């Protein structure tokens, strides 16, 4: 995703984005430049900790699509700098997010298992009736 984003940018913008990613949004000393800070409720706390299920499961069977919250590498860099001096307890938010996701996956798995069991029962009943028909035809022929 990120490399395709860089391809659409000018060389100057690419370098600026890479510097933001490495050094954070306040690297130039103008903190008013970005209206969104890493502690904004719209920012994905799981992304700041590099464990957002929307990113982890991208292009898999469990793909969740794009995360509704903000994902910005520069904000992650800001968070990592700030987290060295203060604990924001975002790990708790991320854990709750992941636990709700796991519970949802478990629920979907149980539904799929139930459907599979019902399908297998139907197939085994159908297989038994076919076997009986074959046996009856064998007796008629033989």
From TrEMBL:
GO biological process per UniProt: mRNA splice site recognition
Region annotation Disordered: where it falls in the sequence: 122-142
Listed InterPro entries: Luc7-rel
GO molecular function, one term: mRNA binding
Pfam families from the UniProt entry: LUC7
Signal sequence region: none
Protein name, entry field: Rna-binding protein luc7-like 2-like protein
Organism: Biomphalaria glabrata (Bloodfluke planorb)
């Amino acid at each position: 995703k990120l490399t395709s984003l860089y391809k659409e940018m000018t060389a100057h913008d690419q370098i600026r984005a890479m510097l933001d990613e490495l050094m954070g949004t306040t690297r130039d000393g103008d903190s008013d430049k970005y209206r969104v800070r890493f502690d904004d409720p719209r920012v994905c706390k799981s992304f700041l900790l590099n464990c957002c299920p929307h990113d982890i499961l991208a292009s898999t069977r469990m793909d969740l699509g794009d995360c509704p919250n903000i994902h910005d590498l520069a904000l992650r860099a800001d968070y990592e700098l700030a987290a060295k001096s203060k604990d924001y307890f975002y790990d708790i938010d991320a854990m709750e997010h992941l636990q709700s996701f796991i519970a949802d996956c478990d629920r979907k798995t149980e539904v799929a298992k139930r459907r599979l069991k019902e399908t297998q029962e139907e197939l085994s009943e159908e297989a038994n009736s076919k076997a009986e028909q074959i046996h009856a035809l064998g007796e008629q022929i033989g």
